[in-house]
Each structure stands twice: as structure tokens, then as C-alpha cells.
Amino acid sequence: MLKVSPILRTDQYDGKTTATLDFAGAALVGVVTSDDVTLNTNGVTGAFADANVGMGKAVHVNGLTISGADAGNYTLTEPIVTAADITAAATSTLLMSSENPSATGSNVTFTATVSSGAGNPGGEVVFLVSGLPFSTNALVAGVAATSTDALPLGTNTVTAQYAAQVNYLGSTGTVQQVVRSAVVYSQTNAIASLVNNGDGTFTLSFVGTPQAEYYVVTSTDLETVMSGWEVLPNSTNTAPAPSGVWSVTVTNDALQRFYRSAAVNPGP
Questions:
Q1: Which of 80, 92, 195, 254 is found 20 to 30 A from 70 (Cα to Cα)?
Q2: So what's the pLDDT on residue 181?
Q3: What are the tens digits of pLDDT across the range 84-138?
Q4: Residue 268 lies in a domain
Q5: How far is the C-alpha of 10 from the C-alpha of 26, rounded, in Å?
Q6: 189-196 and 80-87 as β-strands: parallel, antiparallel, unpaired?
Q7: Cβ of 70: how many Cβ atoms within 10 Å?
């Protein structure tokens, strides 16, 4: 009776019980030295009892044969490999937002798609903003989604974390969600000061409604109707909180020139 020495093999989870066999180091055990007996491995198959990840799993081998002048003197016992492994499959997580940039208070939906070359991963996705979790959602056909209207002003790092499951490795997706101020109407618009810098330039300071946007218009004739005043290039500013004070430096190239601030969104 002949036996084949154990064959060690590691497979990655693919949802199937088929085992990949490697006979590079296989040898017949029990052959008399002078006998002509050869191990044939063409068409051999191997199968795990189940497809799940595990260490030291048994693989049942089928299809081994022997040939040679003395093969008829032997009976081959096919091996059961007892030290084969199935490792977890890799995943990737793609995170998308429903609108980016978004306005403060907007309800933004984040959708995480977890994929793998070995089917649709199951389990849960944890959503985080700046490292702090705000929602945990189950995957359905590889997709999980959540919404929030509590994102702070500025750029937020939103992350979807898929933790390692039984048959799948974990992965992470990230999106930089930009949150901008919603339209702020100007309720305040006044000149605070004018400073002569002594070099032909003047610094104009205005007081506006915090977070409202303003720009500067200019004219050499104070009697000109407002619609006739020229817009000063590159003068648009957002009045900062909490003071609402904003400034622009101008060059006065006329004998007399007048300046005013205008609101991008005047109060209704």
C-alpha cells in the first residue's frame, strides 16, 4: 500500500470549496527502491468540507494514480491533507456623498460600497466624521448608507470603516466633505474707518453681518446713482464672525474718489 506525503497549501476565500493543489514536493511513501512506480497527478482535484476561512482545514484529494512496470504490486491510498488554510479575501470600500460641497444644515447622504473579488461582503460599516463615529449601518448587497445634517462648517474628513468579517478583510473609504455657509443676508452695512497708509494707499474698514458677503464700489462723483458706481476688482469679502469687520486696501488715483460697500445678498 502506497501513501503520498502530505501536501501543504494555502487558498484565499472565494466562496468555493475547491482547493488548489500543489504536488511539487509530493512523493510516494512505501515504494521498494528497485521498483518502477510513478505518481500521476494530472486531473487531480481537491475539496474542502466548506468554503469558509480557517486554518489547518482538511482537503480531500481525488484522482491520484500510479503507473510504471511495478505499479500492479501496489495499492495507492489517496491523502487527506490536514494542514491546508483558507485566508480571508481582500475588500475595497468606496465612499461617495450626495452633494459636495454642501451647505450648513444640509442633509448629506453618504454611501459606502464594499466590494471583493469573492462575492458581496456582509456585515456592517461604521461611518465617522473627523475620527468620531456617528452611524453604524448593515451592508445590503455590498452597500450601506447613512445621512447627517450636523456637519460643521469647513472641510470634514468622512470615513467609512468596514471591519474584518469571517471571510473578508477590512477596508476603509474616505471623502473630504466641504461644508459652506448657506446664504446669509446682510442686515448691517456701515463704514468703520478709513486709514491713510502714507504711500498712496488707503485701508477701508467696514462693519457687516457676520458670514454675509460684501464687495466695494467706487466713484469720483458722490452724486452718481449707485447703479453707476464701479465695482472694485477683487474686493469681495465675507464678514468674519463675531465682529463682522472686514477691510480692503485701495489706491486712490484721482483727485477725489468715494467708496461704498455693497452686499452680495442684501437683506430682504
A1: 80
A2: 76
A3: 889 999 999 999 999 999 988 899 999 999 999 998 999 999 999 999 999 999 9
A4: no
A5: 16
A6: unpaired
A7: 15
**Boundary of a domain, candidates 180, 205, 228:** 180
Is the Cβ–Cβ distance between 156 and 115 less than 8 Å?
A: no
pTM of this prediction exceeds 0.70: no
Cell of residue 137, nine digits: 449601518
In a domain, 64, yes or no: yes
DSSP state string for the chain: -EEEPP---EEE--S--EEPP--TT--EES--TTS--EEE-TT-EEEESSSS-EEEEEEEEE--EEESTTGGG--EE--EEEEEEEEPBP-EEEEEESSSSEETT--EEEEEEEE-TTS---SEEEEEETTEEEEEEE-BTTEEEEEES-PPSEEEEEEEEE---SSB--EEEEEEEEEEPPP--B--EEEEEEEE-SSSEEEEEEEE-TT-EEEEEEES-TTS-GGGSEEPTT--EEPPTTT-EEEEEEE--SSS-EEEEEESSB--
